[in-house]
Amino acid sequence: MHVGDIILVDNGRLKxxxxxxxxxxxxxxxxxxxxxxxxxxxxxxHKKLSVPTLSRKDLEMMEFARAKDEELKYALEIFLxxxxxxxxxxxxxxxxxxxxxxxxxxxxxxxTKAKEPVCHFISRFITGALAVxxxxxxxxxxxxxxxxGDPFCEFRVDGQDEYTQK
Length: 166
What we know:
This protein is of the alpha+beta class.
Protein backbone atom coordinates (compact mmCIF):
# COMPACT_ATOMS: atom_id res chain seq x y z
CA MET A 1 0.00 0.00 0.00
CA HIS A 2 1.12 3.52 -0.78
CA VAL A 3 -0.02 7.02 0.17
CA GLY A 4 -2.76 7.97 -2.33
CA ASP A 5 -4.08 4.39 -2.78
CA ILE A 6 -7.85 3.97 -2.65
CA ILE A 7 -9.69 1.45 -0.47
CA LEU A 8 -13.33 0.60 -1.23
CA VAL A 9 -15.67 -0.85 1.41
CA ASP A 10 -19.15 -2.41 1.05
CA ASN A 11 -18.93 -2.98 -2.73
CA GLY A 12 -17.58 0.53 -3.28
CA ARG A 13 -20.30 2.33 -1.31
CA LEU A 14 -17.60 3.79 0.96
CA LYS A 15 -14.37 5.17 -0.46
CA UNK A 16 -11.19 5.91 1.52
CA UNK A 17 -7.74 7.13 0.57
CA UNK A 18 -4.44 6.28 2.28
CA UNK A 19 -2.96 9.54 3.63
CA UNK A 20 -0.15 8.10 5.77
CA UNK A 21 1.68 4.80 6.09
CA UNK A 22 3.71 3.66 9.11
CA UNK A 23 5.11 0.11 9.46
CA UNK A 24 1.84 -1.87 9.97
CA UNK A 25 -0.56 1.08 10.23
CA UNK A 26 -2.40 3.07 7.57
CA UNK A 27 -4.12 6.42 8.10
CA UNK A 28 -7.18 6.80 5.90
CA UNK A 29 -9.27 9.76 4.80
CA UNK A 30 -12.95 9.02 4.20
CA UNK A 31 -13.92 10.28 0.74
CA UNK A 32 -17.55 9.22 1.19
CA UNK A 33 -19.45 8.92 4.45
CA UNK A 34 -21.45 6.09 5.97
CA UNK A 35 -21.37 3.27 8.48
CA UNK A 36 -19.33 0.11 8.08
CA UNK A 37 -21.27 -2.94 9.24
CA UNK A 38 -19.85 -6.37 10.05
CA UNK A 39 -19.22 -8.67 7.12
CA UNK A 40 -18.84 -5.98 4.44
CA UNK A 41 -16.38 -6.36 1.60
CA UNK A 42 -13.05 -4.55 1.34
CA UNK A 43 -11.54 -3.95 -2.09
CA UNK A 44 -8.15 -2.46 -2.88
CA UNK A 45 -8.25 -1.77 -6.65
CA HIS A 46 -5.19 -2.52 -8.78
CA LYS A 47 -3.31 -4.22 -5.93
CA LYS A 48 -2.29 -7.85 -5.66
CA LEU A 49 -2.77 -9.09 -2.11
CA SER A 50 -1.06 -12.08 -0.57
CA VAL A 51 -4.06 -13.24 1.46
CA PRO A 52 -6.27 -16.21 0.62
CA THR A 53 -9.67 -15.49 -0.87
CA LEU A 54 -11.34 -18.07 1.36
CA SER A 55 -10.33 -18.56 4.96
CA ARG A 56 -10.14 -21.95 6.64
CA LYS A 57 -13.41 -21.07 8.41
CA ASP A 58 -15.04 -20.27 5.02
CA LEU A 59 -13.97 -23.66 3.67
CA GLU A 60 -15.26 -25.43 6.80
CA MET A 61 -18.61 -23.62 6.47
CA MET A 62 -18.86 -24.66 2.81
CA GLU A 63 -18.31 -28.30 3.76
CA PHE A 64 -20.90 -28.02 6.55
CA ALA A 65 -23.39 -26.49 4.11
CA ARG A 66 -22.87 -29.30 1.60
CA ALA A 67 -23.65 -31.88 4.30
CA LYS A 68 -26.71 -29.91 5.41
CA ASP A 69 -28.19 -29.70 1.89
CA GLU A 70 -29.14 -33.39 1.90
CA GLU A 71 -30.44 -33.37 5.49
CA LEU A 72 -32.60 -30.28 4.91
CA LYS A 73 -33.87 -31.61 1.58
CA TYR A 74 -34.89 -34.89 3.19
CA ALA A 75 -36.58 -33.16 6.17
CA LEU A 76 -38.55 -30.83 3.89
CA GLU A 77 -39.67 -33.66 1.59
CA ILE A 78 -40.73 -35.94 4.47
CA PHE A 79 -42.51 -33.20 6.42
CA LEU A 80 -44.56 -31.96 3.45
CA UNK A 81 -45.25 -35.37 1.90
CA UNK A 82 -46.29 -36.98 5.20
CA UNK A 83 -48.35 -33.87 5.97
CA UNK A 84 -50.55 -34.62 2.96
CA UNK A 85 -49.37 -31.73 0.80
CA UNK A 86 -48.61 -34.05 -2.13
CA UNK A 87 -45.51 -35.94 -3.26
CA UNK A 88 -42.68 -33.49 -2.61
CA UNK A 89 -39.21 -33.39 -4.16
CA UNK A 90 -36.73 -30.67 -3.24
CA UNK A 91 -33.31 -29.50 -4.37
CA UNK A 92 -31.62 -27.21 -1.84
CA UNK A 93 -28.40 -25.28 -2.12
CA UNK A 94 -27.72 -24.04 1.39
CA UNK A 95 -24.58 -22.16 0.37
CA UNK A 96 -26.29 -20.16 -2.40
CA UNK A 97 -29.58 -19.95 -0.46
CA UNK A 98 -31.59 -21.36 -3.37
CA UNK A 99 -34.11 -24.15 -3.71
CA UNK A 100 -36.44 -25.81 -6.19
CA UNK A 101 -39.46 -27.59 -4.72
CA UNK A 102 -41.74 -29.78 -6.85
CA UNK A 103 -45.08 -31.13 -5.66
CA UNK A 104 -47.11 -33.74 -7.51
CA UNK A 105 -50.78 -34.16 -6.59
CA UNK A 106 -50.68 -30.87 -4.64
CA UNK A 107 -53.42 -30.52 -2.06
CA UNK A 108 -54.32 -27.06 -3.43
CA UNK A 109 -54.69 -28.19 -7.05
CA UNK A 110 -56.71 -31.37 -6.65
CA UNK A 111 -59.85 -31.07 -8.78
CA THR A 112 -58.94 -27.47 -9.69
CA LYS A 113 -58.45 -25.90 -13.09
CA ALA A 114 -57.00 -22.42 -13.48
CA LYS A 115 -55.14 -20.13 -15.89
CA GLU A 116 -52.72 -18.86 -13.20
CA PRO A 117 -50.85 -20.67 -10.39
CA VAL A 118 -53.08 -21.30 -7.36
CA CYS A 119 -50.70 -22.65 -4.70
CA HIS A 120 -50.41 -19.35 -2.81
CA PHE A 121 -50.60 -20.92 0.65
CA ILE A 122 -47.92 -23.51 -0.17
CA SER A 123 -45.74 -20.82 -1.74
CA ARG A 124 -45.94 -18.67 1.41
CA PHE A 125 -45.28 -21.68 3.63
CA ILE A 126 -42.17 -22.62 1.64
CA THR A 127 -41.04 -18.97 1.72
CA GLY A 128 -41.30 -18.85 5.53
CA ALA A 129 -39.73 -22.24 6.12
CA LEU A 130 -36.74 -21.60 3.86
CA ALA A 131 -36.25 -18.05 5.20
CA VAL A 132 -35.73 -19.58 8.63
CA UNK A 133 -33.55 -22.43 7.30
CA UNK A 134 -31.43 -20.05 5.19
CA UNK A 135 -31.43 -17.27 7.84
CA UNK A 136 -32.31 -14.88 5.02
CA UNK A 137 -35.43 -13.34 3.56
CA UNK A 138 -36.65 -15.60 0.78
CA UNK A 139 -38.57 -15.04 -2.41
CA UNK A 140 -40.65 -17.98 -3.67
CA UNK A 141 -42.25 -18.04 -7.11
CA UNK A 142 -44.52 -20.79 -8.41
CA UNK A 143 -43.41 -21.29 -12.00
CA UNK A 144 -45.49 -24.40 -12.79
CA UNK A 145 -48.89 -25.43 -11.46
CA UNK A 146 -50.91 -28.63 -11.88
CA UNK A 147 -54.11 -26.54 -11.92
CA UNK A 148 -52.85 -24.99 -15.19
CA GLY A 149 -52.23 -28.44 -16.66
CA ASP A 150 -48.52 -28.68 -15.77
CA PRO A 151 -47.33 -32.16 -14.69
CA PHE A 152 -46.44 -30.80 -11.20
CA CYS A 153 -46.26 -27.60 -9.19
CA GLU A 154 -42.76 -26.11 -9.09
CA PHE A 155 -41.51 -23.41 -6.77
CA ARG A 156 -38.20 -21.53 -7.14
CA VAL A 157 -36.81 -20.04 -3.94
CA ASP A 158 -34.03 -17.49 -3.70
CA GLY A 159 -32.56 -16.11 -0.46
CA GLN A 160 -32.55 -12.32 -0.35
CA ASP A 161 -31.27 -9.68 2.07
CA GLU A 162 -30.29 -10.35 5.68
CA TYR A 163 -33.00 -11.91 7.81
CA THR A 164 -32.96 -11.93 11.57
CA GLN A 165 -35.26 -14.23 13.46
CA LYS A 166 -36.70 -12.47 16.53
